# Entry
Amino acid sequence: MADQATRLRNLLDGRTNRIESARVIAVTSGKGGVGKTNLALNLSIGLQKAGKKVLLIDADIGMANINLLMGRVTQRSIMDLVKYKTRVEDVIEESNFGIKYISGVAGVDKMLNASHEDLRIIQRKIVDASNMVDTIVIDTGAGLSRYVIEFILFAREILLVTTSEPASMADAYTIVKAYNEFQGIGRVKLVVNRVRSLDEWNATADQLNQTTQKFLNVFLDPLGYVYEDKEVATAVKKQEPFLIHNPNSPASRCVRELVKSILNGTRMPPVSKGWRGVLQGIFG
Ligand SMILES: Nc1ncnc2c1ncn2[C@@H]1O[C@H](COP(=O)(O)OP(=O)(O)OP(=O)(O)O)[C@@H](O)[C@H]1O
Ligand SMILES: [Mg+2]
# Structure
């Protein structure tokens, strides 16, 4: 992946469009399937409930998962922004949860054919959205494709999601190593998803941070964690954000605290799983 990063660095010039007036947070990961889309969606809803005006952007290639998680269908997508006449307000959708969103593309081909210049056009138009919202959350998809890098460079803050599994941590490390090759990368904040205990969160964050500090001289902001929670899968099946589906489940409790951590810049405090969460832990 590091070689790939060197190639990507040569491809991109490190400079990109940047938004000054809104907070832009890219949610990303090394390994796929670690919970980015769920986190991006539920954090967006949580931030909106905390008084922010949030735009969520599905910038994952070919997946268009945010629609699915909200049980919605739309014909408009981020790729329409490439068209000369399409303005950002033409592709912004209103959700049932207060947040605005821009859908991803459901076909891989369209996005894969997007050129560097196309992505620049898309980003320039997203900058226009900063008149309408104060927080923009971008689901970048996993790994180190040039699409991911383009959106990472676009954001001021990076929320790197991992689980405590060694493969997921190894890929998170590789991603941070690759970031190091780029200039202008924002601060990297770490979220560990699907932890079973506070100890698991602390151990994962510490281990990853010790490695990045030792070998890369990079400090990751240990932002917080989300508990392993069956209600997440249930909510996904019902096509409802888990924060809405069950606001008291362990994962929802964590998201609310994560929102506070994002807003206050503090490390997330210990979160109680609640009695249902404790029962889940005992009876699986
Ligand atoms: N905290 C959690 N507890 C239990 N299950 C979870 C949790 N977070 C995510 N999952 C499970 O992981 C699945 C994948 O989550 P999600 O689609 O958000 O991952 P992703 O990182 O966006 O994946 P991709 O890389 O494919 O885009 C969910 O459908 C859910 O079943
Ligand atoms: Mg996803």
